[in-house]
Design brief:
It is a single chain. By secondary structure, the protein is mainly β. 10% of the residues lie in helices and 43% in strands. The protein contains three helices and 15 strands. It has a six-stranded antiparallel sheet with strand order 3-4-5-13-8-11. Strands 10-9-12 form a three-stranded antiparallel sheet, with no helix packed on it. The longest helix has 9 residues. It is globular.
Length: 187
């Protein structure tokens, strides 16, 4: 492999050259608490929730994967649009998110059960330690765009998050962004 550049448009999140993954409400409906509202949204157009644009890097040890993520503004019920969230299959790997545009909340949970939430805003650089699952929600009125750097061979475990969710949900109550306990975790 030879050195190369990618170009990132900070205003749109486009990364070129890159491979795009698109997630609509139908792709992430099980991540939301209000599944009935999600089904209704799917029937009425299945809105775009987020896109990830990956640089073409081998998924091998020694390489650094990188991508942009664009989460669009919106809510399912009172819960803000979010990414699926994941653990790394290689649990001992970290990740960095650099926010380029918008406002967000980065939710994290360690394999020991600790949790944290960080605000994301233009210029913030969030460190996700090894052994922490992570999910991001757009809490603003414009796209949330961030640049991610990770071990290319880290892998993604989405199933664990889909099954148990995160300890907190990011919702709007009385015009404010708040974190509430996830009722699915107390069952």
């Amino acid at each position: 492999m030879k050195p190369f550049n990618v170009v990132i448009d900070f205003s749109t999140g486009e990364l070129s050259p890159g491979k795009k993954t698109v997630r609509r409400v139908s792709d992430v409906k099980n991540m939301f608490l209000d599944r009935e509202k999600a089904e209704e949204m799917i029937k009425n157009g299945d809105p775009l929730v987020y896109e990830v644009i990956y640089a073409d890097i081998p998924e091998e040890a020694g390489h650094l994967g990188h991508c942009t993520t664009i989460i669009y503004p919106g809510k399912v019920g009172k819960e803000f649009f979010l990414t699926k969230g994941h653990l790394h299959e290689q649990l001992g790997t970290a990740e960095i998110y650099l926010c380029l545009r918008g406002k967000g909340k980065l939710l994290m949970e360690s394999t020991d059960g600790d949790w944290a939430a960080l605000d994301m805003f233009p210029g913030s650089s969030s460190y996700i330690p090894p052994f922490w699952s992570h999910r991001t929600a757009n809490v603003g009125q414009e796209p949330l765009i961030f640049y991610c750097i990770f071990h290319a061979d880290a892998g993604h475990d989405y199933a664990t998050i889909e099954e148990k969710g995160f300890p907190k949900l990011v919702v709007e109550e009385k015009g404010e962004v708040v974190l509430i306990d996830n009722p699915k975790r107390s069952r």
